[in-house]
């Protein structure tokens, strides 16, 4: 387990390091280029201050756009994403893509001087093949997902599409004719950042005009859904700052901004602007990437575990009720009472109870500490089991909490879950994507390795809680049989959550290399020992 944890942490460090480089390169390049151009009409210190201010406002606009899109996706039933935010995020994704290419071009001369000519040629060919292949795979993946039931989560508004076309057109003009065309994008980002700080109402007006121009009369637009965008996120941040204790937060933010600009002005008188550009890129990347990394860690240990976030996206996770189920308020209260009673017998705090609208029987425990753990039950398992079988399953999940298995598995699965979330949130990048895929694979393997050894211990602890090994054996047999009868279209289990469930999902036969793929899935990434073996162990004890 220690080796798996160390490997996961190493991969997380590599991903974060790559993200720092990809963000720092365009920021440093912009500051360098902007100062070099503005120095013809302005003093270098003044040009540096303007460049640093533009970078800060642009990153602020990108951060607000990411926040607004995340909020819109989490509340897709009631709000629509802001087309301005969609355009900003797409612009950021293409800047990262350009940054990865710039890094590759910068490395090529060094590699050419160090590597033998045949090796260097093979490396160039491999790089070109890799870019073409992974781009095709990513496009195919997006197309497949767009054909799935989650297509409504992936659709972009017509106004957002128009903005994306505009971004691509300006980018092409910048590369093909003159870099000065890129000033249009920079000015737009700076204007969005200033508007969010000084006049968020102006952003509302611009968004409404854009939507009215592009989507007027569109039958696909839901009139009952409100837009949630950059302006709303800016207002929420401002309101939060006003509620914060201590000196007036807005004044503190203004003082920090003034100190940043004055520091840039003073630094220019000491260092060459080239060195200052590199320093600004490093600081900006550390603040932006570091903020997201710290936010992910805070969310993990604050109860918003990535595993639960994935369940929310995949299975309509709900805290209090299950839509369109046979679970009524009285039955839900009985489940809570049973969980509380069994938690007392297991000597653990009563965990939170979450229900997921999924017909496939699922029960799992997630959380880093017993006091903040969560038991997730699906509609299928509530309807499939009753009495002693249902109590045995709850005792099994509480045993995972008591034995700290849930904490270990949650921690080991976090890198893979965060990598999957980041891929969808920040867009495709040929550098970060394979690293994210590798992190996800290692995380899955680590979870599988640890989970296989803890199921027997959880079974034994559940028997100690209930004193009924036959009840747990019967529950395992019922669930295994029920899963085998499920149609393939109803098997919604995901690899990231399968390790937490009480029984693994059944194997779906593959058209090609079925035996090999089953060996890998059940061997290397298998999260549970054979259910029949677990049932035999329990029946021996009856």
From TrEMBL:
Domain of life: Archaea
Signal sequence region: none
One Pfam family it belongs to: Peptidase_M48
Keywords linked to the UniProt accession: Cell membrane, Hydrolase, Membrane, Metal-binding, Metalloprotease, Protease, Stress response, Transmembrane, Transmembrane helix, Zinc
Coiled coil, from the record: none
Transmembrane annotation, as ranges: 41-66, 87-111, 117-138, 158-175, 181-203, 251-271, 277-297
GO molecular function: metal ion binding; metalloendopeptidase activity
Cofactors named for this entry: Zn(2+)
One example of a Gene Ontology biological process annotation: proteolysis
Gene3D superfamilies linked to this entry: Metalloproteases ('zincins'), catalytic domain (3.30.2010.10)
Every Peptidase M48 domain range: 333-539
Name this polypeptide is given: Heat shock protein HtpX
Originating species: Natronococcus amylolyticus DSM 10524
């Amino acid at each position: 387990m220690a080796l798996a944890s160390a490997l996961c942490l190493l991969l997380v460090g590599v991903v974060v390091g790559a993200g720092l480089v990809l963000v720092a390169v365009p920021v440093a390049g912009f500051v360098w280029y902007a100062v070099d151009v503005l120095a013809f009409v302005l003093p270098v210190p003044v040009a540096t201050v303007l460049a640093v201010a533009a970078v800060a406002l642009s990153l602020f606009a990108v951060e607000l756009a990411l926040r607004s899109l995340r909020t819109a996706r989490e509340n897709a039933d009631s709000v629509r994403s802001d087309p301005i935010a969609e355009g900003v995020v797409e612009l950021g994704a293409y800047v990262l893509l350009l940054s990865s290419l710039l890094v590759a071009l910068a490395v090529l001369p060094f590699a050419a001087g160090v590597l033998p000519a045949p090796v260097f040629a093979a490396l160039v060919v491999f790089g070109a093949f890799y870019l073409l292949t992974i781009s095709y795979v990513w496009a195919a993946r997006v197309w497949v997902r767009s054909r799935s039931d989650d297509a409504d989560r992936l659709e972009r508004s017509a106004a957002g599409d128009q903005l994306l076309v505009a971004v691509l057109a300006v980018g092409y003009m910048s590369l093909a004719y003159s870099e000065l065309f890129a000033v249009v994008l920079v000015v737009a980002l700076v204007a969005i950042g200033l508007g969010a700080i000084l006049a968020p109402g102006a952003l509302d007006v611009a968004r409404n005009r854009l939507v009215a121009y592009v989507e007027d009369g569109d039958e696909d637009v839901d009139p009952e859904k409100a837009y949630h965008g950059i302006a709303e996120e800016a207002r929420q941040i401002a309101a939060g700052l006003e509620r914060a204790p201590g000196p007036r937060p807005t004044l503190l933010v203004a003082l920090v901004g003034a100190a940043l600009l004055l520091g840039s002005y003073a630094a220019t008188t000491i260092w060459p602007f080239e060195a200052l550009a590199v320093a600004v890129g490093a600081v900006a990347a550390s603040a932006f990437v570091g903020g997201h990394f710290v936010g992910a860690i805070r969310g993990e240990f604050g109860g918003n575990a990535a595993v639960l976030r994935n369940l929310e996206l995949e299975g309509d996770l709900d805290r209090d009720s299950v839509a369109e189920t046979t679970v009524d308020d009285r039955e839900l209260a009985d489940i809570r009472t049973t969980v509380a009673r069994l938690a007392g017998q297991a000597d653990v705090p009563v965990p939170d109870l979450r229900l997921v609208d999924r017909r496939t029987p699922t029960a799992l425990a997630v959380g880093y500490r017993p006091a903040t753990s969560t038991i997730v039950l699906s509609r299928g398992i509530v309807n499939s089991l009753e009495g002693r079988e249902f109590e045995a399953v709850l005792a099994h999940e509480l045993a995972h909490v008591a034995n700290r298995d849930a904490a270990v598995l949650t921690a080991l699965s976090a890198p893979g879950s965060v990598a999957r979330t980041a891929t969808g949130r920040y867009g495709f990048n040929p550098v970060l994507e394979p690293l994210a895929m590798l992190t996800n694979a290692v995380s899955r393997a680590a979870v599988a390795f640890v989970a296989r050894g803890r199921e027997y211990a959880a079974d034994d602890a559940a028997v100690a809680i209930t004193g009924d090994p036959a009840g747990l054996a019967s529950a395992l047999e019922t669930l295994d049989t029920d899963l085998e009868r499920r149609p393939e279209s109803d098997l919604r289990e995901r690899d990231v959550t399968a390790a937490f469930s009480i029984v693994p999902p059944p194997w779906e036969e593959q058209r090609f290399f079925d035996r090999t793929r089953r060996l890998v899935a059940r061997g290397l990434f298998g999260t549970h020992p054979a259910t029949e073996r677990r049932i035999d162990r329990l029946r021996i004890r009856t």
